[in-house]
Amino acid sequence: MTSRLFSPLVLLLVLAFLIGPFAIIIAASLSAGETLAFPPQGLSLRWVFKVFEIESFRQSFGISLFLAIGGTLTALILGVPASYALSRYKVPGAETIRTIVSSPIIVPGIIVGLALLRYFVVPFNTGILFALFMAHTALILPYAVRVVSASLTNLRSDIEEAAVLLGSSRVGAFFRVVLPNIRGGILAAFILGFVTSFNQVPVSLFLSGPGIRTLPIDMLAYMEITYDPSVAALSALLAFMSLGIVFLAERFLGFSRYV
Amino acid sequence: MSNTRFLSLEKLTLSYGKNVAVPEMDLDIGEGELVALLGPSGCGKTTTMRAIAGLLSPSSGTIRLDGTDITRTPANKRPVGLVFQSYALFPHLNVYENVAFGLRLMGVKGKDLEDRVNQGLKTVGLGKFTTRKPAELSGGQQQRVSLARSMVMEPKVLLLDEPLSNLDARLRLEMRTELQRVQKESGVTMIFVTHDQVEALAMADRIIVMKDGLIEQIGTPEEIYNNPVSDFVADFVGFENVFALENGMLKTGAQYVDLRGTVPPNTMGLAWRPGSITLGTGPHQGQVRGTSFAGGTREYLLDTPLGQIKAECDATLPVHPFGSTVSFDLKVEKAAPLARFGGI
Fold it and tell me: A209 has which bridge partners?
């Protein structure tokens, strides 16, 4: 009797804990007041519109978008052939390579950020944007390799030989029969990579510099000076953007089948 | 007269790294033949097939097809088709596109392409399934698509890797006749690899028995079945009582048994099928250790001073009960004489 009452209650609490912050942010962003507060003081869309007027947000959004898309594409261009080699050939030290490739998600971001700043950005005097781009690519690479490797493992390798015997070259066989069959995995890797990069804070925090910041870092900086609901409005917009991407992927490509 | 050396392997050596899988193989296959490469796993039959297809480069030797040296011809330029054991259909393409794959690469287009694909599918009895994906087909249907996909390329040689092993018993029988029919109608030279002697005997014009990378025997199904040359082949085609012969006497363990019969010269061993053992009378005796009813016949497992003997007799005869002692005879004239025994 108690368990019948108890388990829905636990479920409800867990769901509330997961969705709660999201709901609070949305509510706060619709506030008509001057400060970030919950419950909101009155209802208005003024802060949602305000977001688009803030020049630094527009700029850092562009940088974040560039890093997420550019970094993910670069990681895939490096990661897909790497996964292919690791799954199809006997690569000496394959396990070590896998571990090294995965290290950016194992090592805490703060350490990665500090190490990159101290031993990469400072000594080589790389540009800020270049450093950010390299760091984001490295952070996305583990997802690219892991997810694409998983799809490759599920794909029989004899279809490539079949393609070759039907007249295709080895490279042609990769594009004609391997790539179309791991498309879902590549898309999943793209979404994971995009979201990872877009939400990245610790590494970006170390590498951002004057004039060039990613959106999350810019939001942190903004909040230190101004405590108005525009940050909440921006967060809500970003959350909806993420939801939209996942929804579209699920709708058109059956994303959930691959993860 | 068709070409009896349509495909020839000359001193072909195949190896994986330092391990030689097939040393210096010589083999001729005639045009339009249906040949079985028969042997247990690890005997080099699949390796040989992969070399003919071009998926494995020989370490030495020559492969000649229809008068042309193809030893160094890359796999995608060889007029050789291969039906994989797992069929290896392209999962993202439907049946039609799977069959059209090779033709499109050859530059066949439009009406010509359509005609050839449809003709290919019709040949294997799959005209209605063109828009299905491989995952929506049964094993037998996938096998047919795979066959059609290779056949539309009009290969000079079609290789099949264990073509029936992934099918259930009934389908296997159906595909056997199907493969024979396709082969006879198209006249393509067909080589299939199998570890199942029943399959080889039933389908092939000629059987090549392989062991440890070497050819043990080449012959028609009748020759292989009735006159195995070695204890290995004898055992493989169902001679379950195989004995070595020394100085005209059967050798079993440390003892010799006089057979009281004339053995052909140069015979190194004798082999009896269970049905060739004379049960009920004879100079030898054994104890019944097992008996099983097999329809028309009854099988016996006997413990004898000669070792275990497998015998078989008409099921209508009185049963020798478990544990009883039975007389039996090994008549020389009923045995297959073996020219080789225990390796080469």
Answer: A212
